[in-house]
Amino acid sequence: MTAGPNRNVPQLRLELILGLIVGTIGALVLVGWRFDFAVLKSVFPGQVPMKATTAMGMLLSGVALAILSSAKLAAPARFWATLLAAVVMALGAWNLSKYFSGWDFGKDQWLFRDADFRVGISQPGRMSPATAFCFVLTGVSLLAASQPASTRLRRPLMAALGLALMVVSGFAFVGYASDALFSARWWSYTGMAIHTEAGFMLLGFGMLALGRSKREFKWSLDSLTTGGFVIGIVSLLAAAGVAYHFTYQLQESAAWVSHTQEVLKEIEGVSAGMAAIGSSQRSFINTGDARFLEQGAGVKDDLHTKIATLRKLTADNPRQQPRLDQLDPLVDQRIDWGDQTIAARRKEGLPAAEQLIATGKGIELSDGIRRLITSLEDEEYFLLDQRQKKERAISNTTFLLLPLGVFLSVTLLSLGLFVLNTGMGERAQAQEKAAWLASFPERNPSHIVELDVATGTIHYVNPFTLRFLPDLESQGMQHPWLAGLEEAASALREGQGEPLRREIAAGGRYYAQTINYIPETKRVRVYGNDITERKGVEATAARMAAIVESSDDAIIGKDLQGVVTSWNAGAERLFGYPACEMVGQPIMRLIPPERQQEEEEILNRVRAGQNVRHFDTERVHKDGSMVAISVTVSPIKDSTGKIIGASKVARDISERKQAEKALRETQARLHSTLAAGSIGTWTWDIVNDRLVADEFTARLFSIKADAAANGLPAEAYLQAVFEKDRQSVADALARAIKACSHYDIEYRVRQESGELRWLKARGRVDSDCAG
Predict the structure, then answer these.
(1) If pLDDT is split at 50, 70 and 90, which confidence band does 21 have?
(2) What SS3 class is residue 620?
(3) CA torsion angle 493 499 500 506 (round to 10)
């Protein structure tokens, strides 16, 4: 039997172990400062030591991380973690502020005395700016970790700042390694001790481990976006490393130029000293005034000091050392020879000194010294020229690279921005597509129902169905809308998933349904559309089709090119052609050659949207005979209002034409009879006061025939009646109108020639005498 884990024994967490290690590093360094153990302060001899204040910050940070590693953080522990995080952050911010502002309150060595003035140490006892910045990052990250899990910026701060700590400390370590292996300063590390870097690396890793153990980190960016940002960060750091390398070379080159100038200054000092000694000796010999010797007395002692300084400054130059080896004894010899001439002047007078000078030894020694000094100067000027050229070259390269670093940064940030935008855009599109797909059933203006047929359980009803069929969800399979669904589901299962379509009536309305079987869930999904209106339209269309087919009139459909598209039974009877012979054929086959233009004019009016009503014409029967018809043509429009054809109704008017012909013949015979008997006729529309007369009557009343045929007011006829007879005519007509009876009257009319002729008029009044 295997024993299970003891839940009472606390498990060691990675962040706890890392916190204890960092705290131990800080404590050991403080011990090293207390007892002056160099190995604890700087690990490797000659390297930058961890400052006492840095060690204190490491100790506090490690303790805070260890406290936060607890699975359940109690209120007191959270308080102490928050307090320690705030102290660490304040420690880093305080040291940074002193660098930015230039403040120095003399508190950098309040723990232990530090007298380290090596390169990279700006102030003894003060942590470097990079270390102070890392403590600010550590403090903010620990402060975020000590907040409740619901705090919005807790997780991104922990992750981002922990990663930043690892990057900064990691690149400081790269600086150590590149200098040790390749003697290349690719990163600034001089202000941060190597165990300081290790401590920050462990703290950054501990913050990431803390977030992971609490399951607060979930990477949501895709590999493309993540890779783009990683490449961007590495490229920026590489660009910064290159810039630092060239900046360091520029600083080093400037230091060598300054060093050469210092050597030249010392050489000039030696040359000036020898000149001063020679001048004081000559002045004494010429004048005998001992005050001139006092001026050169101090220069002699200073010459050897300057030569010793030159030897030290040019220790790295093997060409200068032999020259200095020759210069030092020559200077001594020149000083001794000068002392001899001075002694001769004092003891034996000016002639003795001049005799000694005349030997030329002094000039020979002075020339030798000048030659050596010139050689020393030439060497240093040559080195100065080389170093200045190198400084200018490095300076130009550095200033040329600085904009490239900015351009690279902008390029990488732009690339990262658009890579991120692409990733977020794809995610937004996916989310939008998911929301779009989810909105289909919710916003679909059709009925959608999903149910388990075996149990009768309805699993989903969309809002549209609930609004128009509110009782469906409560009635379930008993609702008329779902009638016969069991049989449909069985048919679907046997049909291997092919959808089933049917029409069903429910609640006085008609529905078209598409039924699908979902094998994965063993459910049936029903899609339905209300087709009540369509059914009504179909019924109306069927009635209209029946009316068209049963009509005695010929009803013909044709397109805008005059091709027949429909042909009813009336058209078959009227023209003799069955539908199969006319549909698809041009309507021109029915039109006589002399009337072909009529069809084109009719189509033009139809295309313009005009109707053609009761147009009398003739068409050709199948047997070749002519058929008299009355035609009405109307445009046919589609759902958008576009004219797509014409509907033509043709009625047989052969009988009417024959009756009209017989009437015209009868009227002609009557007209001839009346003309032979000198009888005229007229009709008077009393309501509209329009009197229409034949040609004989028009002549009797001296009125033009065409005006009489078109109708004139009755007053125009009365003007021709003799004045004495007008009243009797008017009275007779009035009595007949009032009594709705016949009238019989005689009266006279005046002809255009002035002759009076007697007329006898008989007529009757047609009226609704009852009204």
Answers:
(1) very high
(2) strand
(3) 110
- For residue 117, give the amino acid letter: F
Rounded distance, CA 256 to CA 265, Å? 14
pLDDT at 587: 87
Question: Smallest Cα–Cα separation from 745: which of 737, 736, 757?
Answer: 736
- Count other C-beta atoms under 10 Å from residue 559's C-beta: 14
E strands within 338-476? Answer: 447-452, 457-461
H or E stretch including 435?
A: helix 361-443
For 121, list phi and psi in degrees, rounded to 5.
-105, 105
Which are the contacts of 133, defined by CB distance < 8 A and separation ≥ 6?
92, 96, 168
Residue linked to tokens 């002075």: 366
Sign of CA dihedral 39, 40, 44, 45: negative
Check residue 287 and give its pLDDT.
81
Predicted pLDDT of residue 2: 40
Among 65, 69, 60, CA closest to 27? 60
SS (H, E, C) 276-291: HHHHHHHHHHHHCCCH
Write out the E strands in 543-582: 554-559, 564-567
Tens of pLDDT, residues 77-111: 889 999 999 999 999 888 888 777 766 655 555 55
Q: pTM score, two decimals?
A: 0.43
Q: Where do we find the tokens 């102490």? A: 80
Q: Are 636 and 647 in contact (CB under 8 A)?
A: yes
